[in-house]
Amino acid sequence: xxxxxxxxxxxxxxxxxxxxxxxxxxxxxxxxxxxxxxxxxxxxxxxxxxxxxxxxxxxxxxxxxxxxxxxxxxxxxxxxxxxxxxxxxxxxxxxxxxxxxxxxxxxxxxxxxxxxxxxxxxxxxxxxxxxxxxxxxxxxxxxxxxxxxxxxxxxxxxxxxxxxxxxxxxxxxxxxxxxxxxxxxxxxxxxxxxxxxxxxxxxxxxxxxxxxxxxxxxxxxxxxxxxxxxxxxxxxxxxxxxxxxxxxxxxxxxxxxxxxxxxxxxxxxxxxxxxxxxxxxxxxxxxxxxxxxxxxxxxxxxxxxxxxxxxxxxxxxxxxxxxxxxxxxxxxxxxxxxxxxxxxxxxxxxxxxxxxxxxxxxxxxxxxxxxxxxxxxxxxxxxxxxxxxxxxxxxxxxxxxxxxxxxxxxxxxxxxxxxxxxxxxxxxxxxxxxxxxxxxxxxxxxxxxxxxxxxxxxxxxxxxxxxxxxxxxxxxxxxxxxxxxxxxxxxxxxxxxxxxxxxxxxxxxxxxxxxxxxxxxxxxxxxxxxxxxxxxxxxxxxxxxxxxxxxxxxxxxxxxxxxxxxxxxxxxxxxxxxxxxxxxxxxxxxxxxxxxxxxxxxxxxx
Length: 606
Ligand code: GCB
Prior knowledge:
Helix 5 links the parallel strand 25 and strand 26. This protein is about 15% helix and about 30% strand. It is globular, with a radius of gyration of 25 Å. Bound molecules: (2S,3S,4S,5R)-3,4,5-trihydroxy-6-oxo-oxane-2-carboxylic acid. The site of (2S,3S,4S,5R)-3,4,5-trihydroxy-6-oxo-oxane-2-carboxylic acid (GCB) has 9 residues, from loops.
């Protein structure tokens, strides 16, 4: 009995490990893409994962070749094998399955993906990593029949080392992707967006030498304009490696010696920095060098802080002229995943007059953040702690922390990101406050240089809008969503609305707006018309201008986006219609109302 338990524990050990330390800046490493066509098997009953006693195949002591991850083929004509990837259809990776196959449009459950590849390490002492930009929601990853691990969370990257598993020829990589929703997951069961499933972002192999640069932070020291500070982390360090940071344009070229864990902490002085800002999004070529590797990045340097009601970018007070964006290419349909997709959204944002975007409601792909750096657009990045996640469950908290950590790890060198947002419209309670405080602490421990916010709760008493959410104490920016004239409140009275905001901090309206079907016209008294939406924006903007300490807005939302909650025939048909732009790329009248307002704000904050 004891012996069999021990065998089980030893056997299960490799399965317990989550993804290994995340490699950053994968775009500039030695990579081989695994994007392309992958075979897939739809498996709503998880037949390839559980036997008929509902025991997971990968937890059994003895291999059962019925498990799909063995990619097993019959060795004779008489043998019974009830799956075959090679005869199964294909999906494109990256990409959600819902928008590639009609029959998968509403599908929530397991789909198995498989692709084969050959790989020859260029040097036998090198190491190989398998990197996923994101898989929604839960991924179980197997290479050549061996389980590499599990990852939970649909919007952040993870990787596994595969050096000891990979072969020069005929590797088969099988991924079980499950996008079922769960009460205790992050996000929870209920959201107002489409639950796109699949391998939704880039997949790549990364080859590294045995010791390599895994992670680094190279940013201005908090609030100090002439000091670049941070860390470099080597993987598998043997101690005392020489690491050089070079920024030729700033005439910086300095070497450090890593400690026995492969860590370098550094500070570099420079007086001549051209600071990153929307009007001048200067990025410097930065090189990190070791004996085996030169890793390049393009990094902008800027300070961001608050002072009473002001947000100060490089010391200058700014107004955040924003727009909310979901990670969707509305025109093509489905999840956005490429730089080309990002360019569509950010070009519209620029045309609207934005200097800022809120990437709602989860970390978007890395392409858009990098493009924001280049285009000079500040970013609010958030995790899907949305509405009613289970705040009392420790596993839920750890999951949220893990997603937050993966997002910060990936994006902490992007000048565009000025705000880490913890949550959206979460109902106030003690467990919720404790949960958010933990997330804030976690964020600060990883990156104290950016501002912290969340879309907070507010209420109305005797005609006064009150923002006194206790968690506001811990925020750098007080943000809330305000749907006057849509979910309640009168548009006529909106400009005269009264406000009581407990905190003397910058206020950002993280959402406001209302729906309109593009092309539907009528009077300002008819809901769903472009005229109603336009009037709603006119009145809301008059209101917003008068909110004390107002320093920014991000209307809801750039484009109409898919939501299974939006079922009104003819008008919605599965789309949330609050876009300023339709799902065919046509601007609604309200787009121009916001554009006018932003012109004015740009003048005011010149
Ligand atoms: C909100 C949510 C957002 C919804 C939006 C709406 O407050 O934060 O996710 O999509 O309202 O359209 O109702």
